[in-house]
Amino acid sequence: MRVAFPDPPLAAAGLVLRRPDTDDVPWVIAACSDGELSRFIPVIPHPYSESDARAFIEHSDRAWAAGSAATFVIADAATGDGWGAIALHFYADDAELAEVGYWLCRAARGRGVATTSVRLVTGWAFGDLHMKRLNLTTAPENVASQRVAERAGFTREGLLRAWVPTSAGRRDSLMFSLLPDDPSWQEAACPRP
């Protein structure tokens, strides 16, 4: 699937979604050194090194080029400082299905940054990319991420037992989904004053 970067860039509420680049290495190292991220996102190594950050950026570039994922840095619109990352991971065998994943540095949490970013990416996925379903999974104990999913209009579908492989064995996940005609999405995307 060929995916072009959104033009204009996705932006709202003082944040902008942009492509990762090598200038992001220092803050990505600092953010991903937080053990909370690797606790909930097993693919994030702990401890986290400069080579891990560079590999993340290189993987993001390759995924954009291959059309397998669209990874964005969540950044302060005024300064460009990175607050986290959000991605759409596309399913090779279903062009109308993608999975949303995100993480934030500790300083950006609790301010609506993740919810705004998820809404921006889902709007782009439904509008420009013509997706028909988006998946989002969280660790059962990651209540903050579950709240983000619900505020962005996703519906909790259930528990996926032994869903994610980790170094400590397989872990359960909660599955959330969003369809473009879900009333929860319409309300989240276009809240009434």
Task: Provide a compact summary of the structure.
This protein is an alpha+beta fold and 193 residues long.
Detailed description of the structure:
- The chain is α+β, with helices and mostly antiparallel strands and 193 residues long.
- 32% of the residues lie in helices and 33% in strands.
- It has six helices and eight strands, in the order E-E-H-H-H-E-E-E-H-E-H-E-E-H.
- The protein has an eight-stranded mixed β-sheet, sandwiched between helices.
- The model has no long low-confidence stretch (mean pLDDT 93).
List the helices and strands and how they pair.
Layout (H helix, E strand, L loop, with lengths): L10 E2 L2 E4 L6 H8 L2 H6 L9 H17 L2 E8 L5 E10 L2 E11 L8 H15 L5 E6 L4 H9 L3 E12 L2 E10 L4 H7 L4
Helix pairs in contact: 1-3
Question: If helices are DSSP runs of H or I spanning 4 or more residues, what is the number of helices?
Answer: 6
What's the main sheet like? 8 strands, mixed
Strands of the widest sheet, in order across it, are: 1-2-3-4-5-6-8-7
In terms of DSSP E residues, the strand content is 25-35%
Q: Assembly type of the shown chains? A: single chain
The overall pLDDT average reads: 93
Number of strands: 8
Low-confidence parts? none
| Topology pattern, helix = H, strand = E | EEHHHEEEHEHEEH
Radius of gyration: 16 Å
General form? globular
Please give the alpha-carbon distance between the first and last residues: 38 Å
